Amino acid sequence: MKVKMAVNGTEHERDVEPRTLLVFFLREQLGLTGTNVGCDTTSCGACTVLLDGESVKSCTLLAAQADGRAVTTIEGLATGEEMHPMQRAFREHHGLQCGYCTPGMVMAAVSLVNESPDLDERQVREGLEGNLCRCTGYHNIVAAVLDAARSAREGAW
Amino acid sequence: MIPAAFDYLRVGSVDEAVAALGEHGDEAKLLAGGHSLLPLMKLRLATPAVLVDIGPIGELSYVRDGGDHVAIGAMTRHHDVHQDATILRDAPLLSTVAGKIGDPQVRHRGTIGGSIAHGDPASDLPGAVLALGGTMVVRGPGGEREIAASDFFVGFLETALAPNEVLTEIRVPKATGGHSYQKFVRRSQDWAIVGVAVARAGGRVGVSLVNVAATPVRAAAVEAALSDGAGAAEAAERAADGLEPSGDNNATPEYRRHLARVLTRRGLEEAGL
Amino acid sequence: MSILGNRVLRKEDPKFLTIGGTYVDDLPLEGAVHIVYVRSPMAHARIRSIDASEARAAAGVVAVYTADDIDLQPMPPGAPFANPAMARPWLAKDVVRFVGDMVAAVVAETREEAVDAAELVLVDYEPLTPVIDPATAEGAETLVHEAAQTNVALRIPEDLANVGMLPPESVGEPAGLFDGCDVVVEQKMMNQRVAPCPLEVRAAAAIWEGGRLTQWATSQVPHSVKAALVQLFGLEEDAVHAISPDVGGGFGAKTGGYPEELFVAWVARDLGRPARWVETRSESMLALGHGRAQIQEARLGGTKDGRLVAYALKVIQDSGAYPAFGAFLPFMTRTMLTGVYDIEKTAFSNVSVVTNTNPTVAYRGAGRPEAAAVLERMVDMFAAEIGMDPAEVRRRNMVGRDRFPFTTPTGTTYDVGDYQGSLERALEAAGYEALRDEQRRRRDEGGPVQLGIGLASYVEITNGLPGSEFGSVEVLDDGRARVRTGTSPHGQGHVTAWSQLVADQLGIPIEDVEVIHGDTDLVPRGMGTFGSKSLQSGGVAVYQAAEQVVEKAKRLAADLLEANPNDIELDKAAGRFHVAGTPSVARSWAELALASGDEGLSAEVDFTAPGATFPFGTHVVVAEVDTETGRVVLRRIVAVDDAGTMLNPLLVEGQVHGGLAQGVAQALMEEMCYDEQGNPVTANLADYAFVSAVELPSFETHPMETPTPLNPLGAKGIGESGTIGSTPAVQNAVCDALAHLGVRHVDMPTTPIRVWHAIEQARRVR
Q1: ipTM over cut 0.90
Q2: Does the beta-carbon distance from C669 to B262 stay under 8 Å?
């Protein structure tokens, strides 16, 4: 079946099996390998992308369900050479080590702050409950998101 | 990780969905948000031959003030149930519960109809709708019918929905007298080990228990004790009456009964009793 | 101003943050076939037959292999000195020995086709009695390996004493071990099996071109992968090219040559096509090596006034079905037996048994967390028994800072330490006295939520295995520097850290330093990255190579400037060499590199550390326990860790944070469970309690720096410290919270049900 969607601002149309999950569509059909697969029970969030601006776990959507929609992956977050404030914050706070959870974590955080930039530590931790990381212990990720949220409140986004 | 192959149909209306279910029988499953069904399919615990995608049915996503009740379209996402102003005002238990399902990504996709129709006793919304004494509106080839929540959850992953019926709306009586959802988990994104939902409307208190039986259950003995004038602590002692919960890696039956009592007491207290 | 010791942001990050890393499954491999392994659903069974005919005929299937189709010798045990009869077949031949044991390999054009076809492989199993409980494995009637005639894979110290690796006195318990003890506390406890759960599961890919094999793998040790493949195929060294691209975490579990990974190369050769395998998470939960899994029986004796006199530890190590490195780890437990304390008399014994479960391997700490966990728990129990503050018992028994180098009763020589310093620092940072006051107040109030304060002081061993590490530095004609390192970072930030070392020595800006790792064609030799060894071995090698490059450059500059090399100075800020006193006449790095001609301007070092180093610290955890439900909430985690001189405190903190999370998770919630039939109960990330951000507070880290004399950087290894101290600190906090209710001990993980049971049991007794 044919599916067509805008990914990072560009329209793509491909012929896929109905069972093709969105994460595999992005990775294999479009070559956008930044989004990762970390589990098979919708637990880890490494596959998180934005669907019409809202975070979703792309492993638990059929590509068909994104038909006609707009998807944003990690590759679409920066503006040219300029990193998004969330990406910058992750770097400044050492919020990544092996990098595997990072794209999903960043996208989940962007969605979280976009929905409500007025966040305290507890709300950030709860907002990231769907994203697992084994390397960082979350401490620096939380610091990064709080910093990025502050800059969003100040209008930097 | 890879579901078994299936045929895919996309429908734009409830009637089309009903027709598709009628045509394919029990080979077909509805796909709403997909966050109950797709995880099972990825592990090949479910292998429907046909998926009927009702995602495009926009008119099933709504929240309406029905006077003495709130009507919620079956395709309304958890995220929207959680934030909706009418629900927050008139049936706040649902908002609280919807906000505790899974994680933000899941809440952006999962729907109230999908969760209710799936009938998992460990799910949060079935228990909440049961505590509120809600009604499911269902459409089949013969037209519409209403099923009370107390009749809807029949068994483990089994509801009163016929194979060719589509859940279209969930109606809950307004309940603004106090509420609580005590969701006991190991880890924030998990299913409840035990959950207790409390909703008060006028003098009535609805209490239901999550993950203590094959379906969500009303804590009838607790409700009876309360209407007999018992206080929260005393009534809560009855929470495990008649329960034979199962054991698993997180809890023994005895521990579930204990949690039911403790969480019921806390839920009643939080609801102002 | 040196860049060393600064919080330099990582050079690695922009790529990971904008396009993501390049992991094995991201590699474009034109025409690659996909491999899916068919695994046993039974813990112990005889294979009556395998019918792959339907699978072979399925759409897109290129081949299906079973044991009969391959001519590979079983892999010898991955644990040194383990019973050689417990070899691991590549594909199960007559018997399957754990749920997840590989039975067949299905190869197809696409991943989907391989998964579909794998379901069509029909295996007829005849169930055998499974051996699941390590406590009874030694005496069990059923043998996991018939040919071995025993379920014992290894005895420590006996088997090591037999080959002279340990002295004969290490065997058995000396008579009168507990003489002179007023008090002896005894406890049996579990250091439970856990799953390492790196976010990236295992994957491997292979391609043969003109008789040369290129293998990519999610490995912490690419040069070991190469060596394994050279041996497997009987090839020349230069016929194998092993690459670890970006790897999404390892934690020790990605250091062994798993048959799944190496077999990919075999398939690629057999079919004459590139091949790729990527496991699913559920598969990884079954078959990526597990960690810990020790049953411990401890006795700790001392005097009424708090002097520890004697300590005996008996361990049963669960090796799983095929003894891998996990079977050997009790040796590390023994190595660190007495921890930070001066305990004169000890006894240790371990039996590593096989069971019908997944093999155990190294997992963050690898044998040392097990040592610290039991010892620190016992110290708290001893303190409770004699009615002394657990901080005071620790204080009184710690090896004093003037006693180093200090040799323990198990023959381990600690380089340098300041254990009391770490204890006082941690207690002060935590506000210990105020916490005890709050605890008293809450106990008096008798509310349902009680406070527990848990301490743990630890010392651990890093870079303890023999070997050298390679590092080279070359200055290129454009003035940039190129580093080749034998380490294999997968999150540790070596690219940034080694750039700092080179920038510091050479005065070449860190952004102009390229660091190459993880590729055996580009790096001639290497040990890889594990065991917190990289900075103190590979980092030093790079540092020394950089020093040598500076010396060479000085000699070259001297020639060019017609001066004495002793008069040549390197102006690091400018990156130029000049004669002392005449800075205007200078040569840049680029000019010197050009002038070096064919010889080039470079140096290589193979650095062998003179010995292991011993990071140490003290952790304090504050926990709140809901005594009505058993739920534990961690309020504060205070960590004082000393791994010598810190090259980049930002990276050090990150390692401590990650270690803390894993250590805390083991104490609080994680456990890899099997039922009595050997079926894994926690076989995916929904059922396995992988800790999330909600269960953890922000950490309070207080680094200390007591440089080691054992290398010029003064550096030990920080990677595992966080894990080692935090696990017992959490467990002690939970037990401390319940002590007034009569609870003596709660095993890990301190899940709500376990805590509640302990409270109920104590209540019934009272």
Answers
A1: yes
A2: no
